[in-house]
Amino acid sequence: MAEVRAEMVANVWKIVVSEGDTVAEGETLVILESMKMEIPVIAEDAGVVAQLKVAEGDVIQEGDLIAVIE
Amino acid sequence: MTVLDNRVVTAASGEEAADPRDPRVRLSHLLDEGSIRLISPEDKSGVLAVTGRVEGVPVVAFCSDARVQGGAMGGDGCEHIVHAYDVAVRERVPVIGVWHSGGARLAEGVESLHAVGRVFAAMTKASGIVPQISVVVGAAAGGAAYGPALTDIVILSDNGRIFVTGPDVVRSVTGEEIDMASLGGPDPHSKRSGVAHVVTKTEAEALLRARQIASLLGHQGRVRDVDEADFGDLLPDNPRRAYDVHPLVNGLLDEPGVELHPKWAPNMVTMLGRLGGRTVGVVANNPMRLGGCLDSTSAEKAARFVRMCDAFGVPLVVLVDTPGYLPGVGQEHDGVVRRGAKLLHAFAEASVPRVTLVTRKSYGGAYIAMNSRALGATRVFAWPTMDVGVTGAVAAVRILKRRELAAVPEEERPALEAKLAEEHEKMSGGVARAIELGVVDEVIEPAKTRGSIAKVLAQATPARGAHGNIPL
């Protein structure tokens, strides 16, 4: 099980995957917007998206849980 | 002087399988076959010191003997290490330490503490004179932790553990329950502490990485003609979109190099490799992580890398795409001012040839810090996609022209913003102004990148900084 957490304060701009999706290592889960940049959040391990904890438009803080990959 | 025959100590020879902790076995995997000469006696000191070669490059190496008191360091063993350093400094060759040691010998008391201190002093005096590489293949505790930490590069293998005090002491003092791997294994030291520059899945791979790095630093070569690589498709069409900088860094080099600290402060990439056959150090913002922002940790990581390269005469290539320093209370209180200043200092003091290439954004304080002309860049290139300024043009007019923008109806605002941004760019900055001021020398097509940088490095006067490499 791998937790994917936010590295910085950001707006959740786009959700790319859904709970239950199978993802490969390096695949984009969600796209954040911060520092005028669109920053993809990628899966560091392959697996299934067990939980997706954010929605488009959310403001998240550094360390907040974005997703859990199993 | 004894010549060790590597074949005798490999299990494949069919002879009695050797103890993998035998320093002769470990050194035979590190060094070229048949190249090893002992420079210390084989005794019960817990250390074996030798000279040898890696990929033909002469080096000095020493290795803990974990079979004797767990590799603990006493007066004699430390004397062997100090002697190895004397030889390395005299011969001006890299020194590689292979560590598997519980630290200072308890039975020798203050004598062993004094001896370990003498090792630290020898390492510090050699800093910046000869490259020092540490490979930690077992537990390295106390004095054996600070030994590697004083050197330029720390490689940690799967079974390597580095800590000042082990789990038992931690538990008795603080009550924290933790195992050796979670306390000081590859995971915490590659991601959180920054103690390890490179972590590997096996001991054999760790020794191989040490060979690569010793060869890169010990035999730097001269720049030959290079083939071009096409980076045309690398940048996303949308200038706001982040991308991974690794394909650019690896494509710039002749072949993928050795990345240092890949998982610690990953918003800045630091890599040793060769361009046109010559060793170079690459420093690059990685927009995929933190948008490529500089922060306190990445500035410190890059500063140490820049100073190491400068001390050993390794030219620098700096790839810039950064929206600025990361704002936030956490950063300010984490010392982004103090730690960010290290990067300014490192570039400004560097004597080696150093070329900057701005691929896209270069804003604000981060523009200055990323080896700008003002800090003494040898040459500054830009791709046509470059955008430079105190902040992005749109963001700038939102501040500078706030009242003008507020006065128009909301639906007309984006068009006015774009118009004002264009005017602002003409007047205050952008690529044309940067060239006029001489802070950018030349705009180059991506397909001319390798050749343009190689040419500058080939023509530059070789130089190196006269300073040590304090572990910042």
Automatic annotation (TrEMBL), chain A:
The keyword Cytoplasm does not apply. It holds the Pfam family Biotin_lipoyl. PROSITE patterns: BIOTINYL_LIPOYL. Keywords: Biotin. Residues 1-70 form the Lipoyl-binding domain. Gene3D superfamilies: 2.40.50.100. The keyword Aminoacyl-tRNA synthetase does not apply. It comes from the Bacteria. InterPro entries: Biotin_Carboxyl_Carrier/Decarb, Biotin_lipoyl, Single_hybrid_motif. PANTHER family: OXALOACETATE DECARBOXYLASE ALPHA CHAIN (PTHR45266:SF3). This is Biotin/lipoyl-binding carrier protein.
